[in-house]
Amino acid sequence: MKDSLRKGITFGLTSAVITTLGLMVGLHSGTHSKVVVLAGILTIAIADAFSDALGIHVSEEAENMHTHGQVWAATVATFLAKFLFAMTFVVPVFFFPLSKAIVISLVWGLLILTILSYRIAKSQNEPPWKIVGEHLVIGAIVILLTHWAGDWIQSLCNHINNGS
User: Fold this and answer.
1) pLDDT tens for residues 49-58?
2) Which residue in 16, 135, 8 sits closest to 24, CA to CA?
């Protein structure tokens, strides 16, 4: 049961950070709208948390190595970790101007990812810099790509709206 909970929590946390930051950055660069960013966070917290939880559930069942209780433990842990941590990104958006909230969210999300990665490295007796660095690079790639996607969508919409 402990392994199932660990799997669900680590997957949920990682997914919450990467997906929510990617979405926030992309929506911010494409719309600069606090309402749109908040709606996106809420959508991720609900829809993607259920999707990830079902994905873990089906994956655990497909392995055919886990008890019914272990499968459900991983499922619930994934949902709760994803939902709760995705919702933490609402706080800065509510209390700060959007550009500042994005920066705060980036720091918060990358801090979560760093701490989680460090703990994983220590539990595996691996050099922390290697695992932390790998995970932060992947996170940075997602953030950059979604920022560029938001900019591209914004410029495409501007181009269409201007009739050019």
Assistant:
1) 999 999 999 9
2) 16
Two tokens at 118? Answer: 């460090």
User: Model confidence over 92-109: pLDDT tens digits?
Assistant: 999 999 999 999 999 999
HSE at residue 68, side-chain half, CA atoms within 13 A, is 0
What are the helix (H) ranges across the chain?
Answer: 2-31, 34-43, 49-63, 68-88, 90-95, 98-123, 128-161
- State pTM to two decimals: 0.90
Residue 1 has pLDDT above 70, yes or no: no
DSSP 124: T
Query: Can you tell me the distance from the alpha carbon of 24 to that of 37, in angstroms, rounded to the nearest whole number?
Result: 6
Helix (H, G, I), strand (E, B) or coil at 65: coil
Selection from 94, 6, 113 nearest residue 42 by Cα: 94
Is the pLDDT reported for residue 164 higher than 90?
Answer: no
Number of separate domains in the chain: 1
Parent domain of 7: 2-161
